[in-house]
Specification:
The complex is a heterodimer. Chain A is mainly alpha-helical. Chain A contains nine helices and two strands; from the N terminus they run H-H-E-E-H-H-H-H-H-H-H. Chain A has a two-stranded antiparallel ribbon with strand order 1-2. The longest helix of chain A is centred in the last third of the chain and has 41 residues, at 235-275. Chain B is mainly α. Helix content of chain B is 92%, strand content 0%. Chain B is rod-shaped and about 195 Å long. The termini of chain B are far apart. The chains are: A mainly alpha, B mainly alpha. The A-B interface holds A 25, 28-29, 35-41, 44-45, 48-49, 52, 56, 59-60, 63-64, 66-69, 71, 75, 78-79, 82-83, 98-100, 102-104, 106-107, 111, 144, 147-150, 152-154, 156-157 and B 1-11, 13-15, 17-18, 20-22, 24-33, 35-36, 39.
Chain lengths: 278, 156
């Protein structure tokens, strides 16, 4: 498919990449332009929601029929994931993790993993299928986590949860007290320094949380596109692109799983830190 | 790469997914796993209990076996002793009986011999008297000489 695209004289490499990296964006709330705030990325939203329903529904379906006796292979696999997440949370958070943090961590891990895994789908196949249904200029970004809106949404949700749990654990007064009196002490002279320190922390947390995942997935996608573009140079380029693409895919398995794991771990660490008083 | 309303929508989707997991996914898995953990722990405890019970039973059976062996050897010893005793007694009884029979036989033989001697004596004396009578027909008075003849017969 890449070859076909490249044979059209008007399709330059930058157009190819730009096409693959544009969202299926449509205005909402009376907005007709495809930019500004009142725009929805239908590809990101639909892919992520379908994936979320799929993976969590699958786990729910297994969990509903879970027995305490000898588990089926399906249940054993789900329990493996469950145990993995539960172990990580247990090591970091020492409160009642079953009430919220552990299930939230499971959701984050499984959902982000599924969204990241969309990177394994061949980029041009996705484009071809979308073109077949929506015309040649239809756009569909299949990896929701390479949309900064997704990673920011998750990171900001965790950020709000962090503040919520902070206030819940220490009270509103305790939280404000901590904003001004940690980490350097409660002397009024260091209040500005403390507050500045905490402000930077509160800003940097969601940024590093979301940009790490976004950057990794976006870079992975671009590498796939560059390798796919190689096919435009002929048979040798196609073979070389396929071999390197396979290699990058195999290496990408690590990145996909690792980034999902890191995102989950940071979520747990942030939420656990919110429960600790300084 | 612009931030837009997708962010809000994704955050809502995320919240719904978390709520769903907290409410419907995590509890049944947790309860199944905890129940199984408890069952396994109980099973292990029961196995441990069974093991110790087995040890006690093995020890007990060993003691009982030893006791039984001791008792058996005691009984065998007693039986052997008793058998030897019975044999000795039987021997002694047989010997006594034999002796008695021999003594009786001897006494009877003596008696028979004596009786035969008596008979012979009587017959000899009668024969002597008859012979003497024939020889000495007139001279000898049976009455007067019978005393002497009897004495003679006794000396034979």
């Amino acid at each position: 498919m890449t070859t076909e695209h490249a044979q059209h004289a008007e399709l330059t490499p930058s157009e190819y990449i730009a096409h693959h990296l544009s969202f299926n964006a449509q205005g909402v709330n009376g907005n007709t332009a495809a930019d500004g705030f009142w725009v929805l990325h239908y590809d990101t939203l639909l892919t992520s929601v379908v994936l979320g329903l799929l993976v969590m529904g699958l786990i729910w379906w297994v969990a509903r029929g879970a027995t305490a006796g000898v588990p089926t292979k399906r249940q054993a696999f789900v329990e493996l994931v469950f145990g993995f997440v539960d172990d990580q949370v247990k090591n970091i958070f020492h409160g009642n993790r079953h009430a919220f943090i552990a299930p939230a961590a499971l959701t984050v891990f499984v959902w982000v993993l599924a969204m990241n895994a969309m990177d394994f789908l061949p980029v041009d196949w996705v484009a071809a299928i979308v073109s077949a249904f929506g015309g040649e200029h239809a756009k569909w970004r299949i990896v929701p986590t390479s949309d900064i809106n997704t990673t920011f949404a998750l990171a900001l949700a965790v950020w709000f949860l962090m503040i919520f749990f902070s206030i819940k654990a220490k009270g509103l007064g305790g939280w404000i007290h901590e904003l001004f009196c940690a980490p350097f002490g409660s002397n009024p002279l260091v209040w500005p320094a403390n507050f500045l320190f905490n402000l930077i922390e509160y800003v940097s947390k969601p940024l590093s949380h979301s940009l790490r995942l976004f950057g990794n997935m976006y870079a992975g996608e671009i590498i796939f596109l560059l390798l796919g573009m190689w096919a435009a140079t002929g048979l040798t380029g196609t073979v070389a692109g396929a071999v390197l693409g396979a290699g990058w895919s195999i290496f990408h398995i690590l990145i996909v799983a690792l980034q999902a794991f890191i995102f989950m771990m940071l979520t747990v660490v942030y939420l656990a830190m919110a429960h600790e008083s300084h | 790469m612009n931030i837009n309303f997708t962010l809000i929508a994704q955050a809502i989707a995320f919240a719904v997914l978390i709520w769903f997991t907290v409410k419907f996914v995590w509890p049944p898995l947790l309860s199944a796993i905890e129940k199984r953990q408890k069952e396994i722990a109980d099973g292990l405890a029961a196995a441990q209990e069974g093991k110790s019970a087995l040890e006690v039973a093995a020890k007990k059976s060993e003691t009982t076996l030893n006791e039984a062996k001791q008792k058996a050897s005691e009984i065998i010893g007693q039986a052997e002793k008793r058998a030897a005793q019975i044999i000795d007694e039987a021997k002694a009884a047989a010997k006594a009986e034999g002796d008695r029979i021999i003594a009786g036989a001897k006494a009877e033989i003596d008696q028979e011999v004596n009786r035969a001697k008596e008979g012979l004596r009587a017959q000899v004396s009668t024969l002597a008297v008859a012979g003497a009578e024939k020889i000495l027909r007139k001279e000898i008075d049976a009455k007067t000489h019978s005393e002497m003849l009897t004495k003679l017969a006794a000396e034979l």
